[in-house]
Amino acid sequence: MVENQIPVSPAIKLSGMRWVMVGMAFLATVLNYVHRLSFNYLSAEGELRKLIPDDAFGYIGTAFFAAYMISNAFSGFVIDRLGTRVGYSLCMAFWTTAGLIHAFAATPLQFGICRFMLGIGEAGNWPAAIRLTTEWFPPHERSTASGIFNSGSALGAVVVPPLVALLGVNYGWQATFVILALCGYLWLAAFWFIYYTPKENREAEKVTFKVPVTALLKTRFVRMFTLSKTFMDPVWYFVTFWIGRYLVDVHHLEMKQIGWLAMIPFIIADVGNIAGGYFTQYIIKRGMPIPRARKVAVTIASLIMILPLLAGPFVITTPISALIVFGLAGFGYTAYTANTLTFPADVVPKNSAASVWGMACVGTGLGGAVFQSISGIVLKNNAAEMGYHYAYNILFLGFGLVALVGLLIMLFFMGPLTPDKSLLRYTEGARS
């Protein structure tokens, strides 16, 4: 039986260094998304588009998310065992190297293998960043800290289109992957030099207690949170993975145009990361209990994500209106994520947070793998006869309904965001 070594949570002493540390997690998340999305834009047109049709692109996306699912099953535990410094560094080294070898791929199968390896490494970013925030931030600041580091996902998505357009057009797609990998290795060197665990956490780790994985899996929170993410998170991957092809297929834009226009939804989404965290912090300061505040914020954010998708087929008439729909969906998702990143630390012992997030993200990988393949099949089977506009409308409606299912699971089946009573005996045992 695998077990998780959990220290008793100490009182966190506030230090200005906590903003430097969450800044490093923010930069890592930017690089995570730059590596993740660069292939999607490079393959939207030109040489790679001819090599990789819609169904193959969907299957390659499935390879990434299958690996993401597998990795999330153990990455949180690995990071909890190794610690933030070693665990985060290991993840960055693995996914950066996986990104580098994209430059040497030449067939859909080879790209699928590269994407699989990338998914293995990239899954560790969020458990590592969550552990970092729980080490450096008190509970009332964690939604803000989570919003800051997670905004790197949207900023990475903002940076990728113009960056890929610039590098790809001028230097080719192979050189683009090499240059992006060099950026990852630079972060790795800086993080290894800068990061340390706060003293009070090092002292706490001298007193450990064991929370079995089976005990975590038996909690309703872990099971239902995982299931909800299976339905919620694929919406973000529809936006980030398919927007480049959508703009080419439906609105007939070229890469140079996409490079600048595709930034718009992700600029809007980036605001959601910060707004989601600050809104929760605001209503907590106004007197709303933390568990209720988190769920209120998540509900509002989820509706901001869902409603534009359901309306998309009826309101999109131009590229700009499409970008607004994508942007609102992204804003809602990132505001939702800024709050859900704090869920594990609210329910389970502090140093189980990374492990539980990894478990929940198995749902992310499963949903991503299934719905990426479905997206490719829907486009292949409908675009030829009905046109791409009709085929993508199916996806807008489908992802809106799928996310609604995820929200209902979270609200009615996940349970309260308070310490799970079944795990209290482990913390009590550590204190005795």
From TrEMBL:
The Major facilitator superfamily (MFS) profile domain, residue ranges: 21-418
Alphabetic keyword roster: Membrane, Transmembrane, Transmembrane helix
Main location: membrane
Gene3D superfamilies: MFS general substrate transporter like domains
Membrane-crossing segments per the record: 16-35, 56-74, 86-107, 148-169, 175-196, 230-248, 260-284, 296-316, 356-378, 390-415
Compartments, record wording: Membrane
UniProt keyword RNA-binding present: no
Membrane topology qualifier: Multi-pass membrane protein
The keyword tRNA-binding belongs to this UniProt entry's keyword annotation: no
A Pfam family matched in the record: MFS_1
Name this protein carries in UniProt: ACS family hexuronate transporter-like MFS transporter
Species this chain originates from: Dyadobacter fermentans
